[in-house]
Amino acid sequence: MRRSIDRAGGDRSVRAAAASASALCGALLCGIALVHLAAQLLGNVPLAGLTQVLLMPLLAAALWAGTTAPRPLMVRLALVALGFSWLGDVIPRFVGGEPGFLGMLGSFLVAQLVFALAFWPRRGRSVLRSPLKVLPYLAVAVSIIVLCAPGAGSLLPTVTVYAAAIGAMAVLATGMGRRGGLGGALFVLSDALIALRAFGVLTLPAHETWVMATYITAQVLLILAVRSVSRTDPPEGDGTVPGGRSAERRRRG
């Protein structure tokens, strides 16, 4: 019994330390994000570039610290998606022109696909249950493609593939709850702003600040949704699908 008590106390200590580490990473992320957005507004390019490359590592650290081993596949995939998002943030800093844009687009394309894969197990809770609710996402994706088509030129097929990928991610993110759904929608908005400016369709006042504000918020909401779901969904490999037959049998029992 004493060993059980000691083990329970040790587990509590580990969880408390993890929670503190996650909170610290979250606080650092919030501070860096505010500095980054201020640098964008003030036109301080070096500071904006330095702070941008710190955002995704801090968010990944917060997710890692906020979850316990063995981490579910959803969490691991989200970490991979954050890694590719970080590449998308970094590549344009070192590669200019069209190659840099394509490198950024390719990195974020992989990130969207990995996020979609992470959210796939909860597709039964997404707007896919009601095809009519998918139509707004489809309409937005098609609208972005149509608006960007005149300026995209040879990049139009690439833009089309990316629009389809981020649209699919946003649809599947609705299965992650309200935070997931909002995060997916904001990610679409952020990337739409990038595309509309890149292809000469629209430039807002403080355009880059709006891009980054929506991007950071989107990523944070998606990761909060992942962390929340990973704590409530059944462990992997127990044969239970959320809301599926096993759950139904338990309710009947």
UniProtKB/TrEMBL annotation:
- The record's region (Disordered) falls at 232-253
Q: Which domain of life is it from?
A: Bacteria
Q: Which InterPro entries match?
A: TMEM86B-like
**Cellular location(s):** Membrane
Keyword Cell membrane among UniProt keywords? no
Membrane topology, from the record: Multi-pass membrane protein
Alphabetically sorted, this entry's keywords are:
Membrane, Transmembrane, Transmembrane helix
Q: Name one GO molecular function term.
A: hydrolase activity
Per the record, its GO cellular-component terms are: membrane
Q: What name does this protein carry?
A: Lysoplasmalogenase
Q: Which residues form a coiled coil?
A: none
Question: Hey, which family's this protein in?
Answer: Belongs to the TMEM86 family.
Residue ranges annotated as transmembrane are 21-39, 45-65, 77-95, 101-120, 132-153, 159-177, 184-204, 210-226
Q: Its principal location?
A: membrane
Organism (species): Brachybacterium vulturis
